[in-house]
Amino acid sequence: MDLFTLVLPFSKCAAGLVVSLRIGERTPGEDKPMSDRPSYEQLNTNFNWVIAERELGYRPGDVINIGWMCSDRLCQLGLAEKLALLWEDYQGNQKRFTYNDLRVYSNTIAHFLARLGILPGERVCLFLDRVPELYIGFLGILKMGAVAQPLFSAFGDESLCVRLKDAGTSAIVTQKKHLHKVRKIREQLPNLRHCIVVDVPQASLQERETAFAMEQVPPVEHFPIYPTKAESPSVLHYTSGTTGQPKGAQHVHYSIVAQYLTAKWVLDFRPDDIYWCNADPGWVTGTSYGIIGPWANGITQAVLDSGFNAGKWYEFIEKYRVTVWYSAPTAIRLLMKEGAEIIRKHDLSSLRHLASVGEPLNPEAVIWSKEVFGKPFHDTFWQTETGCIVITNFPGMEIKPGSMGKPFPGITATVLDPRTYEPAKAGLIALRPGWPSQIRGYWNNPAGYQAKFRNGWYLCGDRASIDADGYFWFMGRDDDVINTGGHLVGPFEVESALLGCPAVAESAAVAKPDPVNMEVVKAYVTVKQGYQPSDDLELEIMNHIRKRLSPLAMPQEIEFVESLPKTRSGKIVRRILRCKEFNEPVGDLSTIMDD
Ligand code: WT7
Whose CA is nearest to atom 5 of ligand 1? Predict the structure, then answer.
């Protein structure tokens, strides 16, 4: 049996989607008061992920394919003409795609990749700005059974190379403006058979480079979807840890069950919503809640392919009548800095629900948003590894500003004493394994994944406390990873790249507090003989990292030192430097120093 006969009869009665909105049509009265929604307590009682399986029309053992579920399925439920994507870029170019467009264009991409000889299970990297090909290409890759590997297009050649090499990536989809980075590293990547460029004619390309214009090639009406199952690999997201290079977090198609329901309940989706997620799909928020969550729910989403600009953002909300907005604390702090005056110039009355992720959401930001937008931002906590929101301020639940809220129904979360790994009032955030979107491992690194578990708990690598009402309060990370503007930067990656500078002898990359980005990267550096620390050298080193890694991994400050603190066995102790930056006591170092 193929995917259609397996999935369709059941999905026709999908309880979650009861709408058939046409372009431009609004459903008055749909915006029910919050009290009409089941409460957090009600949803928690007898919770079972089967609720989401049923709404998605999935039964254990069925074929399940995210690409199909986010496009064809919606068309079959009567939403073919509903708008799925409202796209605009920094120059004001605009495009609109219906669910039927998603279906046909993702078929076209899937067909093209299959014709190139890409096989199911192979990794296909999306190295694109936030252009429609990124969102639709993601579905296309999944439809033909390959694994989507989205990478942030601001990455420099070294960041890109490390991740493509580790994943053994077979093909990369990119734009003309990023092609030079791919060309620079191509020789180091024997597995990379194809480089697909979406915005140039074939004549301007070199060997093993193929032009593909999604909207110009003949559209493919019917594509035989690859029959992926629950445990088939879907997405590979690279995430940074304390040690070693970034790790490939391996997601599976079954993750949609959790992404669908968390998006629906936490982002409080209603059929006529216009949803805006600020995150780039190079990071997990941009795929779980920038592609899969909204489209599995048949929601219209708006995408702005442009950097931060308060005026432009408010204009965007006003123009598209955005109702649900998923943002991040750094962006909110930047908006706060711009003040309330600019907000009064715009009609932002469409906004109904606001949420935030990526870093601690400071209480001032919650209070400010309530004042200026009339709605608080709802903090949500999760990670690349969890694949979905796990701790959250649930819609309708009392918000305690500064708290991350409570576990999503079906998620067992606690905090553990770091010595005994027994539940405590404050300690390490831990989750009971087994929710649908938990990653199934790190690519090529089973030991790294195993190390995340203790006493039957998955450890997030963060610290928190739980209050008497069961609310979680974030305290900090439990490792040396730097969280800058919601993006994790691994110190090892920065230190490795620093060693690529001729002047650098040794280095340590640590977090430094920052009023807007929460943390920024700071590097302590010793120079080789024959080099003198200077302002010019500092700039040269910063530029080197910005180009090779990315603007966010670039140290905002470089401190030249005579020597770095080390253990007896010679390992650099970043913690001492980090504590210095944060003015915190270093504490007991005896065990570390004996390392
Ligand atoms: C790390 C995960 C999950 C999407 C974006 C980041 C930090 C995430 C919060 C929050 C405090 C948070 C944690 C976490 N983080 N959300 N609401 N409050 N910290 O995904 O790149 O895997 O980063 O971001 O440290 O472990 P990621």
Answer: 358
Q: Is the CB of 477 under 6 A from ligand 1?
A: yes
Minimal-distance CA residue to ligand 1 atom 27: 383
**275 within 8 A of 299, measured Cβ to Cβ:** yes
What is the whole-number distance in angstroms between the Cα of residue 358 and the centre of ligand 1?
A: 4
Residue 227 near residue 2, CB atoms below 8 Å:
yes
H-type alpha helices, 288-438:
293-296, 310-320, 329-338, 341-344, 363-373
Ligand 1 centroid, distance to 477 Cα (angstroms):
9
- Report how far apart, in Å, the C-alpha atoms of 203 and of each of 19, 180, 328, 480 are: 46, 16, 42, 47
Residue 6 Cβ contacting ligand 1 at under 6 Å: no
pTM of the model: 0.91
C-beta of residue 169 within 8 angstroms of C-beta of residue 188: no
Partners of 482 in beta bridges: 489
* Pairing outcome for strands 274-277 and 324-327: parallel
Lookup result for tokens 């780039």: 280
| Nearest CA owner, ligand 1 atom 3 | 383
Mutation test residue for ligand 1: of 284, 478, 488, 517, the one with most atoms within 8 Å of CB? 488
Indicate the burial class of 518 (C-beta count within 10 angstroms; 0-12, 13-18, 19 or more).
buried
DSSP letter for each residue of 62-122:
S---HHHHTTHHHIIIIITTSEEEEEEETT--EEEEEHHHHHHHHHHHHHHHHHHT--TT-
Instruction: Work out the number of other CB atoms within 10 angstroms of the CB of residue 482.
Output: 28
CB atoms within 10 A of CB 93: 10
Decide: 280 in ligand 1 pocket, CB within 6 A. Answer: no
User: How do the pLDDT tens digits run along the chain, 595 residues long?
Assistant: 233 322 322 233 333 332 322 333 333 333 344 557 889 999 999 899 999 999 999 999 999 999 999 999 999 999 999 999 999 999 999 999 999 999 999 999 999 999 999 999 999 999 999 999 999 999 999 999 999 999 999 999 999 999 999 999 999 999 999 999 999 999 999 999 999 999 999 999 999 999 999 999 999 999 999 999 999 999 999 998 877 889 999 999 999 999 999 999 999 999 999 999 999 999 999 999 999 999 999 999 999 999 999 999 999 999 999 999 999 999 999 999 999 999 999 999 999 999 999 999 999 999 999 999 999 999 999 999 999 999 999 999 999 999 999 999 999 999 999 999 999 999 999 999 999 999 999 999 999 999 999 999 999 999 999 999 999 999 999 989 999 999 999 999 999 999 899 999 999 999 999 999 999 999 999 999 999 999 999 999 999 999 999 999 999 999 999 999 988 777 888 989 999 999 988 876 665 665 5
- C-alpha 328 – ligand 1 centre gap (Å): 10
Shortest-distance atom of ligand 1 to CA 284: 4
Which among 460, 418, 399 is positioned nearest to 435, based on CA atoms?
A: 460
Q: Is the CB of 396 under 6 A from ligand 1?
A: no
